[in-house]
Amino acid sequence: MATAAPPAPPAAPKLQGVQPLRAGEGNSFLWRKLHSLTGIIPIGAFLVEHIVSNFETINGPLAYAQQVKFLNSLPLVRVLEWGFIFIPLAFHALYGVFIAVRGRSNVNIYPWAGNWMYSSQRWTGAIAFAYMVWHTWHLRFSGVHLLAHPNAAFGKVQGEFQHPWAVAFYVVGIVCASWHFAYGLWLFAAKWGITTGDKARRRFAYVCFAIAALFIVVGMVTVRSFLDWPLQPTDTVVSPTDAIVMR
Known about the structure:
3 helical TM bundles of succinate and fumarate reductases; 8 helices; about 0% strand; globular
């Protein structure tokens, strides 16, 4: 007697959203975990500190010089620079390029918005890294040595701002760095299992968007402060107060 064929198993549900990092998915698992972590600590922490420190420009050149002097007086500041900023940043950027180059099409996994966010994260990361390399080279390694002469910091940034393209690059760099960090924070929480479920991720997305907007606003106010003050000298002086050109 013929029997009916068993029903076909249900189709696997279509994947949605960001998939968590899991062990056993290739040799790149640990590298991807490290890449994700370095984007938040220490690079993200440094970005927050940098934005807060630069916001001292609203209080004028003297306050900004004092902030630069304080940062340079931290114990083991050179070790902190290389061990917690330059080396992690280089790894995060280079491995991010490696991931982007080897990236697979995700049209069948992510909705349209997810594809757009994926692409924006790669492009903003590349632009932000180019901006940080240029910014660090000009302020840290060329011209007046700000570690020895923090009083010249305000005027040195203003000197860059004498070129309209440099101001535009600062603005684009701040926007890209702010977006890259904020969306990276959202990805970190999703991939590390901190936010589980669509509802939690949607709510945290609003928080991350607010962080990006706040960073951009603070960055624009900082740029405006450099432009509003009279051009400050960059020659090395003995007294910080003698170097300040008042409004």
